[in-house]
Amino acid sequence: MPLPRVVAAAVLLFFASSSFEWASSAASDLPRFREAPAFRNGPGCASAPTIHIAMTLDAAYLRGSLAGVLSVLRHSSCPESIAFHFLATRPRRFRRAVAASFPSLTFDVYRFDPDLVRGRISSSVRRALDQPLNYARIYLADILPSSVRRVIYFDSDLVVVDDVARLWATDLAPDYVLAAPEYCHANFTSYFTDRFWSDPVFPSALAGRRRAPCYFNTGVMVMDLERWRAGGYTRKLESWMDVQKREARIYELGSLPPFLLVFAGEVMGVEHRWNQHGLGGDNVEGLCRDLHPGPVSLLHWSGKGKPWLRLDAGRQCPLDSLWAPYDLLRRDGRESLFVDL
User: Which top EC class is named for this enzyme in its record (predicted)?
Assistant: First the structure.
């Protein structure tokens, strides 16, 4: 028997209300962010190449990711020529947040399946380093469209204070797969355990490189995805993760050591100005640090201390004030925090 019109209307109203409440709840599980200014191309951008930038998106680092995007656009001479590629375990959830803050941004969000690495991750010195999304950079060549031949990978705890086109112009000829700032003064042996160095086979993997292996930070990399795909580098990285998980504990520091094992000594060097890293302190205490000597194009809060957490707690480090102008978090009644960028 058909429902009376009044009852049917009440039922429809109930479900419409319930759906609205569910959608509102789903949308409100992330912080609210402001809309950034629109950035337009300057003179001479008609022939500018499309610059591809990859980042990850998750709830804990979303605030940092959006700040990073804003910093790139703010300092670019051709911001409309930049395409962003985001990896997330729940793309739809974060697509709305990015679009709300950057309505005119060219971007896409791709799903990263955590099962790709869940069985390959071993515990490290800091829990954040053990999250599957921290390993997503290994799979960029597999997830991004084949038409994306080259990409800059950025971590979510940095801001760019220079035109990213200068980093994009890094020459990877004749056959380099990666470019990044190298730090050859660092003690390379400390990134691996005694078990690794005492093994009769493992250290030989580092022999025969173009140069002596040096530490590099994987939070800023220029990557030739065509060469990566042709060389099967995803599998090479996975194989070292499998050794760590199934054979012997050969390192302690998340996704970095496999990159060192595969690429150290085979990296095209980039000026240190493009990764003033370590501003988050060490991986245990996250103490304040100063800038390294020299010019600065990119500030990177690698380490335990993140600027947004320290600012919220009222325990900011001096350099955290350089991150704050890019923070898009909406604070009721306190919109003046968004300075004139």
Answer: transferase
pLDDT tens-place string over residues 170-185: 999 999 999 999 999 9
Residue 66 maps to a domain: yes
Domain residue limits at 291: 51-326
Backbone angles phi, psi at 111, to 5 degrees: -80, 130
CB 57 within 8 Å of CB 65: yes
CATH number, domain containing residue 163 = 3.90.550.10
b vs e for 55-74, b when ≥16 Cβ sit within 10 Å of the residue's Cβ?
Answer: bbbbeebbbbbbbbbbbbbb
Distance CA 324, CA 34 (A): 14
Is residue 334 one of the residues assigned to a domain? Answer: no
Residues 233, 122: Cα–Cα separation, whole Å? 20
34, part of any domain: no
Q: The tokens of 262 are what?
A: 């595969």
Number of domains in the chain: 1
User: Which tens digits make up the pLDDT trace of 283-320?
Assistant: 778 889 999 899 999 999 999 999 999 999 999 999 99
From 293, 330, 325, select the one nearest 161 (Cα to Cα): 325
